[in-house]
Each structure stands twice: as structure tokens, then as C-alpha cells.
Write a structure and sequence with these properties.
alpha/beta, 10 helices, 13 strands, Arc Repressor Mutant, subunit A
Amino acid sequence: MQKRNLGNVDLNLLVPLQSLLRHRNVSRAAESLGITQPAMSNSLRRLRSLLDDPLLVRIGNKYELTARATDLQARVDELLNALASQILEQPTFQPADSNRRFVVGASSSTAITALRPIIKTLESVAPGISFKALDLPRDAGSILSGQEVDLILVPEHLPVEHPRERLYQEEWVIIAATENPMARMPLTRTALSSAPFAVYEQDGLRVHAMQLLAAEGIHVQPRFICDNFLTMMHTVEDSELLAVIQGSIARRYARSSNLVILDSPVPFRPFGIDMVWNPRKLDDPAVSWLREQFRAYHQGALAAASGSYPSYQLPE
């Protein structure tokens, strides 16, 4: 049997068909839809022509469904219910029942500071949810060009042409191994200029803290260059190298490793870490929920750390 081209079918007839099959009466079907009886009679006429079946037949003083109409009733109900629930209604997200895998772009250090606690927080409320972390390329916004990535976490100075929201404040600090002789005396500009450094560099660019040192006339001597903050930190731990790294990750590991945080002779300006979401997923309730989890956690962390970290105002 050749399939009929739906482009030639008036799908608006499905709703009158459902009402006619349900009420088995033209007048009551018209009343249920708020249309006139002649309009419903016209729909019935068109349906009979379309389906090549009378649909309703008079038996005695009432109408009954034909065999074809009886077979169609459940199918039409199922079709229109699916249309309403799956297409017309706003989708919802139930985290407790979801197996959604979220994809988040972030540097390794930001993933530990910003993403790791979210994973821990959600273990009990959303046990089926998982995460995939992607390292950020130099052009961070480029990974939002497709559908895979839900959001990215970037420093405020990184240009991204998408909506962004401040999550928390970060800072740069200088670290050294506990046994490093330079850890036993105040750092000076001269000492920084002569000290061997581990330096973060990506595509020839260094973090703006290192650029600030250069602008102050302090040209550090890189002995080790890499594009991963954690690798750089662990290299410093067992060497005479210094490094500039995010304060949040330095404080986390300095408590349990062979690292100390040194006072810089040049103050580094604090900077924000922003959440940037995929514009293709603005209407995705799961991504909206995830963004709220980030907000809630980091606002709570900010309140708990007030007095210990630089303060800032979250955007409205």
C-alpha cells in the first residue's frame, strides 16, 4: 500500500476526529471544541473523504463507530497525547531519575576548584548524573559551536562571544617547594628575576600574572614550560622552581603536599571565573538546572569564606 504524502493532508482534522470518535455525536463534539455544528459537520464530511470510511453510522436513534473508527480511536488519542506532552509542553528535568551526562569545558585547575565540588554535592541528589570534562583550547568559545558542550568555565579576561555569569573570584599566587631556600626569606623583585620558574604557556601565551611581572620589569627565567597547571604544580613540589598558579588550587594542595605559598613583591589583581553556557541549549531544562547548581554552590562557598578571600558582588 502506497503511503500518503502528509503534505497533502490537513492535520488540523485530527482534533475534530478525536472529538467525534469520543462523543459519537456531531453536536456534542462541536460543543466540546467550542465550534458550530455546521463546522463540525463539515469536518466529518472531509474526514470521511480522507479516510474513505463513514466513521459514524446511525443505528436506531444513535450513532455508532464503524470498525475502522473503533480501530482509530486509541491511535488518535495516543498520537495527540504524545504531541501535547513531547512537543507542545515545556520539557522538564528530574535530576534524581536522570542519567544525563553533562559536558563542561575548563582548565584542569578550574575543574578541580569549580567542578569537583559540584560532582560531590550531586552524588546523593542525582546519583545517575555524570560529567565529562574537556580542556579549553586557546579559543575557548569555539568548543561551544556544536551541541556536545553544555557550558565552559573561563577566566574573566578570556574573550568569549556568548552569555557569561560570574561564579567566583580567583587570585594568582607564587608557590615553591617547602625545602626551597627562597621559601625561607621574603621575596624581592631581584630574587624573582633570577629565580628559575615553571611557567604555564599555551600557544605562546602566558597568564596575565606573568605579563604583569614583565610589565614591572621582572623577566622570570623559565626552566620548565607546560600547558597544565597541575603538572606545573607537581613539578615545583620536587624542585627549586617557583611558579605562579591559582590561589584556590594552591591552597588546596599546600595543606597536604610539599608546597608553600609565598608573598609576592608585586600584587596580583584578583580575577573572576565566569560560567559561559552554550547558546544552543538556552531552553534545555537540564542545563538550566546545572547552572543553578553551580550558582548555589559557589554562592555558599563565598559566604563561608567571607573574610578570608577577596569579596565580590554576584551579578543579578
